[in-house]
């Protein structure tokens, strides 16, 4: 039996952030304080392609801080790709902790279908 799940992504797992960066071929994230346009932020910093400022992941709150000036300093699609990669990697990590197998398939619209195989079933 399949189930459709809708999730709101909170970024709380450093291992999943690191795996998402590997998946997207981004530089390894670093814990630090960085300057945004008119503020500073501290957390796990991810540098997205062609973004002027890093995306800061506050792992305690699950929230992101970033400044892309409504797309002028970084395309929103890169943030969406990172969030998607994080969600897939987090699902993989949690499924494997429970001993399940995971497979994925990229769909035509760019989304990723993740299938968790419980109890070794195909």
Question: What are the SSEs and their pairings?
Answer:
Layout: H1 14-23, E1 30-35, E2 40-46, E3 55-58, E4 63-65, H2 76-97, E5 101-106, E6 112-117
Antiparallel strand pairs: 1-2, 2-3, 3-4, 5-6
Structure description:
With 122 residues, this protein is an alpha+beta fold. The protein has one domain. A 4-stranded antiparallel β-sheet has the order 1-2-3-4, with helices on one face. The protein starts with 13 loop residues before the first helix and ends in a 5-residue tail after the last strand.
In short:
With 122 residues, the protein is α+β, with helices and mostly antiparallel strands.
Q: What are the salient characteristics of this protein?
A:
122 residues, four-stranded antiparallel beta sheet, two-stranded antiparallel sheet, 2 helices, 6 strands
